[in-house]
Specification:
The protein is of the alpha/beta class. The chain has six helices and 15 strands. Strand 3 and strand 4 form a beta hairpin.
């Protein structure tokens, strides 16, 4: 059974943490509509969508990906780089406890799930404003017994590693070469985002499903030209909060 944890869009999302974007008004009703369509795409792809408890006082709480890294053997509960997000992790840990052994990142480490890209047994970790070397080292310590290799990746101009690069097939990544060095992923086939769509590097892949924001048609054409089947969702409103399609769920096999 494939499970997708999500969380509702809170009424305070416009107060979210921002790093690289200018703040602009967020239409909460529209954001909720787009999020509901996203959840429907997950269901259509065979996921059992389960909403975590709402956290009305946490503006970023819809972005559940940042609170955990769910591997086959263990779930690593993160320590988000934004202090305002740390109250989110307890409910994620409680929900995951039924499915995985739980480990946690401890102080002084900080680690956001959006900075961790899994490609097979390799965990690439973005060294960003939200993830530090100590957080990377904690992840390496926890996952080494299970045979994972952890590698730090430098970023420029974006919030998280998965803002710049994501997996779109078993052996293929989508990336923005202006934000991350393509040479880091030289062992994988690569699709570069269209230069007019710099934020198009975030796609959600699992099984035979690839979910992608409908706002990036030029990059979608590149994905389809590479032989990939793309399912689109509207994501513009959540993008105002620096969120992408990977950010809004934790997808794993039970």
């Amino acid at each position: 059974m494939r499970i997708a944890f999500t969380r509702e869009v809170g009424s305070r999302i416009a107060e979210c943490e921002l790093t690289h974007l200018q703040r602009e008004p967020v239409d909460v009703d529209r954001a909720r509509e787009q999020h509901a369509r996203y959840e429907n795409r997950l269901r259509e792809a065979g996921c059992d969508v389960r909403r975590l408890a709402p956290l009305p006082d946490c503006p970023d709480s819809v972005f559940v990906e940042d609170t955990a890294i769910v591997l086959d053997e263990v779930a690593v509960i993160t320590r988000p780089g934004a202090v305002s997000r740390r109250p989110e992790i307890a409910s994620t840990a409680e929900a995951l406890r039924a499915y995985r052994e739980i480990a946690s990142v401890s102080e002084p480490g900080i680690l956001d799930g959006g900075d961790v890209l899994r490609l097979g047994r390799n965990l690439y970790v973005g060294l960003s404003a939200r993830t530090n070397r100590e957080g990377l080292d904690e992840l390496a310590r926890v996952t080494a017994p299970y045979g994972y290799a952890v590698q730090g990746v430098d970023l420029r101009g974006c919030l998280h590693l998965k803002s710049a690069v994501t997996r779109v097939a078993e052996d293929t990544v989508l990336l923005n070469p202006a934000w991350v060095d393509p040479g880091v992923f030289a062992n994988y086939a690569q699709v570069a985002v269209d230069a007019a769509e710099p934020a198009a590097g975030n796609a959600l892949h699992f099984g035979n499903t690839l979910i992608f924001p409908e706002e990036f048609p030029r990059t979608r054409e590149r994905l389809e030209a590479a032989g990939l089947r793309v399912t689109t969702v509207p994501a513009a409103e959540l993008a105002k909060a620096e969120g992408g399609v990977t950010c809004c769920s934790l997808v794993f096999d039970a």
